């Protein structure tokens, strides 16, 4: 995986520290409970995707402001322990990462997120190392750092560099511009429906696909994911697992899709790989607790995969 590129992947997006707790059963407000499943961990869409890409062996940079506070120390350590490069962290003593508290339902694994961006240091277009971005093979951005994302996508426009977009929310005009510039746009089905004004999956994707020359994909948890293609809508079912925590599954989908794209896999195998990795993340508490390496993937149960993807994982 050696390359003349400064990095294989350049990532930017919300910089968050997660405090996750899997609730005991029958919680009554106002009482005290011992919670054995409690974890402090780095989080947020782009950060989790960056950790997965680095874990899979891609030279990955993450652009974010880091301060001197405890949360910045945690955010920095959580990124670098998976191999994300420190080169693109911007020191800013007045800034701090966001903080989220994630409550996980013990019966379903579904999570409820409460977050704060007090003292958060948002990125500006001038913070982006445009020359290094242009030398990357792929950029991955989320919609929460819109100025930075737009700068990165404008920088690679007309180049061979791919982009993977993780868009959940934002100003509709800015979101539309991001979609127009992206080469691979992956968003929750609810966001696709809201942006397009269409409820049926096919109609929503068709409307969004008219905005861009890129690939448009919608995800919907256990219901799987759908891609708009010239031949129609392709559906990738979700892999069935006993989910402990769904935090970070969508982030893992984006990161795994990006890795498969860099590996040169076709669309259907990219979506299958992304769905498989997302399901594995759901087996552990937190979005980064079960991130695989290429070698660890070979030890998983590969019988659930298509023959084509199985050969790729084994190679």
What does this entry look like structurally?
With 315 residues, the chain is α/β, with parallel strands linked by helices. It has a single domain, classed as Ribokinase (UDP-N-acetylmuramoyl-L-alanine:D-glutamate ligase, 3-Layer(aba) Sandwich). The protein contains eleven helices and 13 strands. The longest helix is centred in the C-terminal third of the chain and has 15 residues, at 267-281. The radius of gyration is 19 Å and the shape is globular. The two termini are 14 Å apart. The model has no long low-confidence stretch (mean pLDDT 95).
Question: What's this entry about, in short?
Answer:
Helices cover 34% and strands 22% of the residues. By secondary structure, the protein is of the alpha/beta class. Helix 1 (45-55) packs across helix 8 and helix 6 (189-196) packs across helix 7 (201-209).
The CATH superfamily is known as Ribokinase
- Helicity, in percent? 25-40%
Low-pLDDT stretches = none
Count of alpha and pi helical runs: 11
CATH architecture heading: 3-Layer(aba) Sandwich
- Mean pLDDT metric: 95
What best-fitting shape do the alpha-carbon axes yield?
globular
- What name does CATH use for the topology? UDP-N-acetylmuramoyl-L-alanine:D-glutamate ligase
Layout of helices and strands, plus pairs?
Layout: E1 9-12, E2 16-22, E3 38-43, H1 45-55, E4 60-66, H2 70-80, E5 89-91, E6 98-104, E7 111-116, H3 130-135, E8 138-142, H4 146-156, E9 162-166, H5 172-181, E10 184-188, H6 189-196, H7 201-209, E11 215-219, E12 225-229, E13 232-236, H8 249-262, H9 267-281, H10 294-297, H11 307-314
Parallel strand pairs: 1-4, 1-8, 2-6, 4-5, 8-9, 9-10, 10-11
Antiparallel strand pairs: 2-3, 6-7, 11-12, 12-13
Helix pairs in contact: 1-8, 4-5, 6-7, 8-9
